[in-house]
Amino acid sequence: MKKKLGLLYGGKSAEHEVSLSTAKAVIQALHFDKYDVFPIFITREGEWRRGVQLTAPVEKVSDLQFGGDSKESKPNDISSFLLDEDEKPFDIIFPLLHGTNGEDGTVQGLLEALNLPYVGNGVLASAVGMDKVVMKQLFEIAGLKQVPYVYFIRKEWKKHQDTLIAKMEETLAWPMFVKPANLGSSVGISKATNREELVQAVELALKYDRKIVVEKGIVAREIEMGVLGNDEPKVSVPGEIKPVTEFYDYDSKYNDNKTALLIPAPVTDQVIKTMSDMAIRAFKILDCSGLVRSDFFVTAEDEVYINEVNTMPGFTPVSMYPILWQNTGLAYSDLIEELITLAIERYEEKQQLQYQ
Fold it and tell me: Model's pTM, two decimal places?
C-alpha cells in the first residue's frame, strides 16, 4: 500500500527560493509507485496551501496546482489542515524548508505536537543547528576545535558598539567574518578587514537577526562531510569547496556556477579520520537525526576546525550533501528513500515512550 507523503516547502524565510529548488529536485526523484504525493506550500507571508495530489514529476514548482480541490489554511488553523478527518492522514511529512520558520525547530515542534512522522532533525537539533552561537557553545562542551569568535545582540551593539569593536580587535584578528546567528545559505554574511567594514557588516547582519556572531578569519580550505543516520550515524567522503569569490557566499552557492567541488577532497587519511570523528561527535551532541552536513576548515598544516553543521543542507542533485553521498555510493533517489526510512524508524521508536 502506498504511503501518503506531504512535501512541505516554501516558507517565511530569506531562503524561500532555495526551498523551491529543493522541492523541485525531490519531486523529480521520488518513487511515485510508493507514495501518494501532496505538495504543501508555505507562502512568504506564512500561509499554508495544500495542492492536489501529484502522480508524476513536474518540471517547475510553479506548475503545481493549488486550485480546485486544494486546501488553504491560515497559521491558526494548521492542525486541522494537516489532520483532516475526512481523509487518510499523512504517513510521513518531508520538510524541504531552509532557514528560519522551517529549519529552526518551529515546524518540527508543530509536527511533534501533531504526532506526525517527518524527515530530518527534531526540535532540539534543528533549533541549535540554526543558532550558530548555541551550536558553538555545545561544540566547546564536546571539545571540538573551532576558530575564536565573539557574539552579541542588537541592543548590546547599539549601546556598546565601541566596546564590542575593541573586544573583537583584541580577541580576534583581521579579517573577520560577520554572520547572523540564525540563518543559512550564507545570507547576510560579510568579510570585514577594518573597522568601517566591520560596522557595515554588522548593520547588514542585523537586518536578518537580532543576534550576531563574529569569527576570526583564517587561511584554510573549506571541506565538508555528509552525516546520515539516527543513533548510529555514518559519514560520507569529504568534499572541498573552491569558490572563485573570497568566500562561499550566496551567489557562489546558487547563482554563478563557477564554484569547483573536489570530491573526494585531496586530504590525508589522518585529516579524514579527524573530520569523521568530529562530524559524528557534533551530530551526537546536538542529538541529530536523519541528515547533517558538517563544515570544516583545514589549514596548510592540516589543523582541522569545525565551522558549523547544517541540519537541512542544500538538497538538490547539484548540492554538496547529495553529491557527497553519490560519491560514497548512494544515489539521490536512494538517499531520499533512506531518509524516509530513518524518519519512520525514529517515529516508531518514540511511540514506545510512556506518557502516564
Answer: 0.88
